[in-house]
Amino acid sequence: MDTIDQIAAQPEDAEKDSSVPAVAVEDLHKSFGTQRVLNGISLTVKRGETLAVLGRSGTGKSVLLRLIIGLQNPDSGSVRIHGQDIAGLALDDLGEIRKKMGFLFQHAALYDSLTVEENVAFPLQHHKQEMSKSEQADRVGKLLEEVGMEGALQKMPSDISGGMQKRVGLARALALEPDILLLDEPTAGLDPISSGEIDDLILKLQAEHHMASVVVTHDLHSAKAIADRLALLNEGKVVIEGSFEELQNSDIEFVREFLKHS
Ligand SMILES: Nc1ncnc2c1ncn2[C@@H]1O[C@H](COP(=O)(O)OP(=O)(O)OP(=O)(O)O)[C@@H](O)[C@H]1O
Ligand SMILES: [Mg+2]
User: Fold this and answer.
1) Mean pLDDT of the chain
2) In this predicted structure, what is the pLDDT of residue 5?
3) Which band of pLDDT confidence, cut at 50, 70 and 90, is reported for residue 114?
4) Does the beta carbon of 55 sit less than 6 angstroms from any atom of ligand 1?
5) Using a 6 Å cutoff on CB, does residue 37 contact ligand 1?
6) Is domain 46-65+99-261 in CATH 3.40.50.300, yes or no?
7) With 0-12 CB in 10 A as exposed, 13-18 as middle and 19+ as buried, what is 17?
8) Distance between Cα 211 and ligand 2 center (Å)
9) Atom number in ligand 1 closest to CA 33
10) Cβ distance 168 to 149 under 8 Å?
11) Per-residue pLDDT reduced to its tens digit, 134-158
12) Is ligand 1 within 6 A of the CB of residue 57?
């Protein structure tokens, strides 16, 4: 095998090799002007695992997700997806990697001017041109069924509740069968019952699709329900990373304060 083949074979091999984390960020730094937001963040997530990222407003949780997706570049540090450093990748290659990543943004979960059906079909129309219209429609139907929204095909996002919008956003995030799922505040702004339903849905999707998931949340209750591990950020650093019990048993003042007020 020549060198080019070896390089080309690497990412796929890494996907199958469960010892390579699906997502690995190392020593990430990111500032905006003089504001230092991330100051040395290192985290890994394996397939089948859900990591919850917690922290106060403005600690850089959404920025962290945008760096993982490659929508922004870190000032220093690395983002590896299935072992491959995404820094300096050509747009096409980054695009290929992104197809394996489903994401739900914090705001703008859906495109306002498209129906529910069109929203979920959007990634298929752009990345699965080989699928016929009827195959795409079938897939959209199945995805909406999976999230319990099969009755809302022709509705506009403004006509459905916040919790329903998040469900549809999840269906869209799953459209390309990602192996990495990145969710930014999937339960924010929802009442406790709707939040619990979204948590149950995330657990179900995780069990069925066995993805590597990073879920950013303010909601400790939700983090406890869905995550294998939790990472609490403050002042640009990971203050603690571990199970919910490990956070509960921590002596670190910031952790105790955070838990007390959550
Ligand atoms: N493109 C940008 N330009 C300038 N500043 C930015 C940019 N993106 C983020 N910031 C700043 O970085 C900080 C972290 O923002 P971020 O949105 O990641 O916080 P967060 O932890 O997600 O907060 P929240 O819990 O409220 O969603 C904020 O102070 C924000 O104003
Ligand atoms: Mg945010």
Assistant:
1) 91
2) 45
3) very high
4) yes
5) yes
6) yes
7) exposed
8) 22
9) 4
10) yes
11) 999 999 999 999 999 999 999 999 9
12) yes
